[in-house]
Amino acid sequence: MTQEKRTRLAPHARRMQLLDAASTIIQQYGLSRFTMDALATEAGVSKPLVYKYFGTRLELFQELLEREFHRFRDDLQKRLEAARSIEDIVRIFVTKNFDEVDRGSAIQILRGQPDIRKTIRNKEKHEERRFAQFLVAELAGSYTLTRAQARQLAVMGSGVSIAAAESVHRSGCHREDLIDDTVRFIVGGIESLGSSVKKRRTAAVEKC
Fold first, then answer.
1. How far is CA 156 from CA 57, 138, 147, 160, in A?
2. Which residues, in sequence order, are CB contacts of 80 under 8 Å at separation 6+?
3. Which of the 8 DSSP states describes residue 6?
């Protein structure tokens, strides 16, 4: 970005602008080519101003990752709250796995660095457990499954969607088409197991 006369921003707005500029550089060039000089140029500010907000690259990267993690989590929560069916919920989690495997996104580039990722590690574990519990409860309630059965389905479905997401990078498949196919595959498996469990229970009742 060509450096022009700097617009005065409130401290929080300036901080967010610098993080936005850092995200742009990381996605375009990766971490190896990131410098505070490049950030100043991209944001259209002076280098001393960059250091006024971020003392080191690591501090900046950690704050950027934390911001992107919270945005990702809040967006996922909103989509789950708006879901109206198991298929909607499965699609949300499949898309989440595709997003997490997207190695070109700033959040994934940053998460690939242990010294940067440590700032959100405990939060990640907590949120993963919370969303997993939500999915298990929805599956168990919708298909009259035990929590153990629902948990196993959630694990298998996650494995399928991660494998499908990774194949996008290898094969060049169209992302949205593969998400559709993955959702249909997982939902079909859930419905098949749910039907099988229902038949077994009906047969057991009839024997009694």
1. 39, 15, 14, 6
2. 89, 92, 131, 134
3. P
pLDDT band at 171 (very low <50, low <70, confident <90, very high): confident
Instruction: Give residue 125's identity as a one-letter amino acid code.
Output: K
The whole-angstrom separation of Cα 36 and Cα 60 is 10
Question: Count of alpha carbons within 13 Å of 181, Cβ hemisphere only?
Answer: 12
Statement: the pTM of the whole predicted model exceeds 0.85: no
Over residues 65-121, the pLDDT tens digits come to: 999 999 999 999 999 999 999 999 999 999 988 888 876 788 889 999 999 999 999
d(CA 172, CA 83): 29
SS3 of residue 7 by DSSP: coil
Higher pLDDT, 195 or 39: 39
CATH of domain 1-55: 1.10.10.60
Token pair 């936005």: residue: 20
Domain boundaries, the chain: 1-55, 69-207
Distance from the Cα of residue 121 to its chain's centroid: 14
Give the Cα separation of 85 and 82 in Å (integer): 10
110-113 contacts: CB < 8 A, separation 24 or more?
110/26, 110/31, 110/61, 110/64, 110/65, 110/68, 111/65, 113/31, 113/61
Which tens digit of pLDDT belongs to each residue from 10-49?
Answer: 999 999 999 999 999 999 999 988 999 999 999 999 999 9
